[in-house]
Structure formats: C-alpha cells, structure tokens
Specification:
The complex is a heterodimer of chains A (536) and B (69).
Chain A (H helix, E strand, L loop, with lengths): L3 H42 L2 H34 L2 H35 L6 H30 L4 E4 L4 E4 L2 H5 L2 H31 L4 H36 L1 H8 L11 E8 L4 E8 L2 H7 L9 H27 L4 H10 L3 H8 L10 H10 L4 H30 L7 H9 L2 H16 L4 E3 L3 E2 H4 L5 H32 L21 H13 L1
Antiparallel strand pairs in A: 1-2, 3-4, 5-6
Helix pairs in contact in A: 1-2, 1-4, 1-6, 1-16, 1-18, 2-3, 2-7, 2-18, 3-4, 4-6, 6-7, 6-15, 6-16, 7-14, 8-14, 10-11, 10-12, 10-13, 14-16
Chain B lengths: L1 H26 L1 H27 L14
The chains are: A mainly alpha (536), B mainly alpha (69).
Chain lengths: 536, 69
C-alpha cells in the first residue's frame, strides 16, 4: 500500500509546479494575439507607432514565454517520475496529445518565435505579420493539446480499459479531441488568457499615461487592450457557463462541490452566493442564497435540478459494491488472462471498476471489505467542498470585476477621455494581478473538483502515484518551490526593468537624428533597450 | 502572373477554411466558435487602434515620424 504522505506530497508537488507554470501561460496566450492585432494595424496602415508597439510588447511577451517554457518542462517529466502508475495506466491515450503539444510548443511555436524576434529586419512586413499570427496560433494550439489531455482526465472519452493488458486503450482519437469537456475547457482557458493579456497591456499602458510617458503608444495600447479585453471577458463568462453545463453532465460531484449542494431539493434550486461548507457535518454554515438561480444557471430552466451530494454518495455506495467484483475478476485475469468466468464477471461490472479501486485503499483484500469501508470510499468520491466552493467564487467574482473594469475603460477610451480619469488609470494598474488570481482559482476548481480521481470515475489518485519515499518527495518539492520562486522573481525583475525603461521614443522630424548603429545579432530586440535609455 | 498566384493562394485558403468550418461546425462547435471569436476579438481590437488615429486626425505617421529599430 502506498504511503498516504507520499500521495499528498506528489499531489502538492504537481499542484505547486502547475500553479507556478499557470502564472506564465495565460499571459503568453493573450499577448500573442494582442501582438498580432498591433502588427496587423501596422501592416494595414503603415504607421510606425504600431511597429514600436508590437516590438515593445513583444519584448515583454518574450520574457514571459521563456520563463513559461522553463516551468512547463518539468511538469511533463513529473508524469513519469511521480505518477508512473497513471502513466502506465492511461499512457496510450494521454501520451498522444502530450506528444503533439511538445511538437507544437518546441517546433512550431519556438521556430516562429525565433523568426518573430530576429525577423524584423530580415522579413517583409507581410511575412513578419504572418509569423506573428503563427506564433499566436501555435501558442494556443499548444494549449489545446494540453487541455485535450486534461479533458480526458475530467471526462474520459474515446478510451476503454483492456483487462488483458491491464491498461486503457485509445478507441477513438476523434472522440478524445472532440469531447465536450476538452472543447469547452480549451475555449474557456484560452480566452481567459486573452483577458490576462489585455489586463496586463492596459495596466502597463495606464502606468505610462499616469506618468505622461510614451503617451501616444500607451493610448493606442490601452484602447486596443480594453477592446480586446471587453470582448474576451464576455466570451470567458459565457464559456464558463458552457463549461458548468458540461460538468453538470460529466462531473456531477464537482458541480455539487462548486455549489455547496449537500441535500437534494426540489426545483427551482437556490444559488448559495456565500456559504461556509462543513464537509464533516455535510452542511453549510451562514449560507446567503438567491432563490431559483442555480436551476437557471445549471439547467437553463426553472424546472431543472442537479444531483446533490447526499444522492451522489448513495449512488457511489452502489457503484463501489458493483466495482468490487470487477476488481476481483481483474485479479483473477492477472493470473490467467484466458479465464472465461473472470472475463464475464469483469464485463458485467466493468463500468464501476474505478469505484472498486477506490475501496481498495481501505480494504486491500476485497473479500474482507466491510460496509463501513464501502461507505468511506463512497464518501471519498466527493471532492473537498469548501476549497472548490470558494475557488469557484473567487474565479467568478474576479471575472465579473474584470468585466466591469473593461466596460468602464472601453467607455472612456472610446470617448478619448482616459487621460482625464487618473483614478481609472490607477485602477487599471491595480487590476494587473486580478486575472492571475482568477486563473489560479479556475485551475483549483478544475483539478480539486476532479478529486479523488486522476481520471474521473476510472483511476483513483491514490493508485496513480509512484512509490517514492517521503524524504525524496519532500526534498524534490522544496527544490521545485525554490527554483520556481526564483523564476518568478527573475520574471518580475525583468518585466519591471523593461517596463521602467519603456519603449524607444519616436524621433521627431526636426529633432537631431542619432547616427545609425550597426545592427547586432538579435536585431531590433537587441538594440531596443539601448534606444530606450537614450530616448528617455 | 503574380496576381494569378495570389488568386490561387487565396482560393486554396478559402477552400481550406470552408472544409475546416464544415468539419469543426459538425464535430467541434466550440473549436469553431473559438476560431471565429478570436478573429473577431483581434479585428475589433485592431479597429479600435485605427479609430483612435482617425479620431485624432493623425497624419500618415500616426504620432510618429520615424521608425526605431
């Protein structure tokens, strides 16, 4: 039996590295398309200010991209080092999208980023624009494949367990990539990245406008960012609703935890706006409710209802009881794969195999399993409600706050009155951390809500980990946290430094013209900081 | 000849878009929505920048006279 502390440390290590990595990724996803928008205006209008915009924001994009890649690499290795049973069990399915993601990120995306950075003086305007668009597309397609893999963990489609190999096999690649969970998750996450990019560009532009520096560039950047952001935020809220609708079908325990729904109630269901869920007593404390809203949100109808935790636990008891013969048959088949009786028994109960695994944590010998152990396994099938409930509210609350900000900022920007509103510019700067908080909270909802499974309803988390020692896991966790904290510090330092230096100032038509300098390797990006220092 | 090649290129792109839209519209409506939505967001954002130039009556240099490398 695997040590419980090793399971917790393995989860903590993956969570820590993923949370660090997910600070960088959304900004890359969003800024890449904002760069494409800026360069599109440059190519269509020929106005050099948009070229300076694309180059300046491109430099910040590059800092973020480089550190994002560095933090992402180790995560892929963790599947093999810390989650070896998981990798063996679902590697036939999970490996394909992960490999395609690697190809997208390290071949397509990195190649075009190289051309984007070094190509300003080597490619024509049109060619460079095409490269910038391809960087944006490749960044987001790279995310697509990770989210297809994650979508499989949330709602395993296109795969089946093979009792002769003891592994899951891919049955339909089409079902895997077009699963509703993968689709809605990709669109929601990708557009959340657009919101992050837009808030970042608007916030930094506001910093320049408040200090009356680089005003023309900042005004245009702010305008483009808030328009980009207001549409993206509307999209992310709408697609969040779609994802909730999908989860209501595919992951009812996650939905019940998100809404703190302990007891089955008749429709229309009220929404718990605020509550303090108590998992031990299976009830909420201090709930503030809005009548009928949950039915509307989750079923788009006043008559609709969703299963509560009490009903889901009763169902899980039946599934655990049904899964036990499946695991027992599998034990027989592992000794004799040709045993027809065991195969028939397995096929009769295969749907609930995962629930049989769930109870094995408490009863390694399933012939001696007790009703109390079955009830405990059923209770385990509910994710940590308070953490999911509050992460969800942080995500939704910050999302709505960003929507309100973007609507206001768009209004003033379209009236060309943004510089008359210093409080709004200060607010824009203050908003910079908000999408990062929203993204992390969203990730917690998705992944804590999937517990106690690595593959929902199929493979429990406790079975998925490698059999390392506690010391090894603790040591490597401390190492990762120290290394990644250093990466964050480096990113913050480089970002702040680049923002303080600012974009290179435009040279006026009558002003003194600096002598042309020979272009070093690295082209425009390499010379820009120097130009900026002299320009400021 | 150059115009003809461009015509061919754009026709190929158009046919690819139609095929992609037909497949995605059928199998992956959310992916299709992402393609359309992203394009729209980028173009509206780009139009916002161009509108600002127009409303300020900027000259052909749009507040800038020379390029910086």
């Amino acid at each position: 039996m695997i040590n419980g502390t090793v399971i917790d440390l393995s989860r903590l290590q993956f969570a820590a590295t993923a949370l660090y990595h997910f600070l960088f990724v959304p900004l890359t996803l969003g800024m890449s398309f904002l760069l494409a928008a800026m360069e599109t205006v440059y190519v269509t209008t020929g106005r050099p200010i948009y070229r300076r915009m694309a180059m300046f924001w491109g430099r910040l994009f590059m800092i973020n991209f480089a550190l994002g890649v560095a933090t992402g690499l180790t995560m892929e290795f963790q599947f093999g080092t810390n989650w070896s049973f998981y990798s063996s069990f679902v590697g036939d399915i999970f490996g394909a999208p992960l490999a395609i993601e690697g190809l997208m990120a390290f071949f397509m995306e990195s190649t075009f980023i190289g051309l984007m950075v070094f190509g300003w003086h080597r490619l024509s305007k049109g060619q460079h624009l095409a490269v910038t668009w391809l960087v944006a597309l490749a960044s987001n397609l790279s995310a697509l494949w990770i989210l297809v893999a994650n979508g499989f963990m949330q709602d395993p489609q296109g795969a089946a367990f093979d009792p002769t190999t003891m592994r899951m096999h891919l049955t339909s690649f089409q079902d895997l990539i077009f699963s509703p969970d993968a689709q809605s998750k990709f669109v929601h996450t990708s557009i959340a990245g657009y919101v992050t990019g837009a808030i970042f560009v608007a916030g930094v532009s506001a910093y320049y406008l408040l200090r009356n520096r680089h005003v023309e560039l900042a005004k245009r950047s702010f305008r483009m960012a808030v328009l980009f952001g207001v549409l993206a935020t509307i999209g992310v809220v709408t697609l969040g609703d779609a994802l909730g609708f999908v989860d209501a079908q595919a992951q009812p325990t996650k939905l019940a935890a998100m809404e703190g729904l302990w007891k089955t109630e008749p429709a229309p269901l009220p929404l718990n706006l605020i509550a303090f869920p108590d998992q031990a007593q299976q009830r909420n404390h201090g709930a503030v409710q809005i009548p009928a809203v949950l039915s509307l949100l989750e079923t788009h109808s006043l008559d609709g209802t969703v299963p509560a935790i009490d009903a889901l636990e009763r169902q899980a008891v039946r599934q655990v009881e049904d899964g036990i013969p499946a695991v027992q048959a599998l034990q027989t088949l592992s000794r004799n794969p040709e045993d027809p009786a065991a195969l028939a028994q397995f096929n009769a109960h295969r749907e609930d195999l995962g629930y049989g695994f769930l109870v094995q944590r408490y009863a390694p010998d399933l012939t001696r399993v007790t009703p109390a152990e079955i009830r405990q396994a059923a209770r385990d099938s509910i994710p940590p409600v308070a953490a999911v409930f509050w992460s969800f509210r942080v995500m939704v609350g910050t999302g709505l706050a960003m929507l309100a900000f973007f609507v206001l900022a768009t209004l003033y920007s379209l009236r060309n009155r943004i510089q008359e509103k210093p409080w709004l510019l200060k607010l824009a700067m203050g908003m910079i951390p908000v999408p990062f908080l929203a993204n992390e909270a969203g990730w917690l909802v998705a992944e804590l809500g999937r517990q106690p499974w690595t593959v929902y309803g199929v493979l429990p988390t406790w079975m998925s980990v490698s059999t390392h020692s506690v010391g090894y896991m603790a040591f490597s966790l401390i190492g990762f946290v120290a290394l990644y904290s250093t990466f964050i510090a480096i990113e913050m330092y480089l970002m702040v430094r680049t923002i303080r230096i600012g974009p290179p100032e435009a040279r006026g038509p009558r002003g003194p013209q600096p002598r042309p300098r020979p272009m070093p390797a690295g082209g425009a990006f390499a010379t820009a900081p120097h130009a900026a220092r002299t320009g400021d | 000849m150059r115009s003809f090649l461009y015509f061919l290129l754009f026709m190929v792109v158009a046919v690819m878009i139609i095929v992609l839209a037909a497949i995605l519209g059928d199998e992956g409506a959310w992916y299709f929505a992402w393609l359309i939505g992203t394009t729209m967001i980028v173009l509206v954002s780009a139009a916002g920048g161009a509108m600002l130039d127009a409303s300020e009556g900027a000259g052909p240099q749009g507040g800038d006279s020379t390029e910086h490398g």
